[in-house]
Description:
Blueprint: H1 8-31, H2 35-47, H3 50-61, H4 65-81, H5 85-109, H6 129-147, H7 152-175, H8 181-213
Helix pairs in contact: 1-8, 3-7, 5-6, 5-8, 6-7, 6-8
Amino acid sequence: MVPVSYPIKLLVVLSILFINGFLGLTIWVSNQSIALDHQIRQYVFETQLPSLTLFFEKMTELGSTIVVLVVVIPMIVYLVIKKRWIDISIFVIWVSSSLLLTMLVKELVQRPRPVSDVYGAVSYSFPSAHAVIALTVYGFLIYLCLKSQRSMVTKVGISLILGVIILLVSISRVYLDVHFFTDILAGLLLGIFCFCGSLLLFARRSRTSKIEMR
């Protein structure tokens, strides 16, 4: 498949915006307790229902290792069969850079998780690896969908469903009290930055190749 022409200037602007948002949030969280986090946590406590807890326990599993592998392995096999090497490279770079940065920042910030009696979790809280994983996996499916030859209605419909999954997985981490709201926001900002960066690498490569061919 011929790589699409990525808007380099837009990707640069978006990369700068999202990394600055992430860095600003990281500094904010590192220096003080965030009142907004505690307000949202208190609101969740006051509105919890057994049925909602069960629902969000199911939703959070959509970001678990087993479910992610069930989604990713067939996707990679399909892309290999179709010889879509650029798409595979973008996915690998996006996932690896997002997870590596997530683990690095977790160790640097060392933010404790909220005290939870609902859903156990290990490692530090900031940023949320679940949010990063949900965004990279289901977000990449959105990317593939939008690149496909399907009708616009189908593309929008599938993308909306996948977007809702990302949102519900992210919300589930706050509802189940294993993450603060700002952990989720940071994970999404970091994931989008890494996606823009991954596209930018291949946009520059594609542009260089075209210049050399002239």
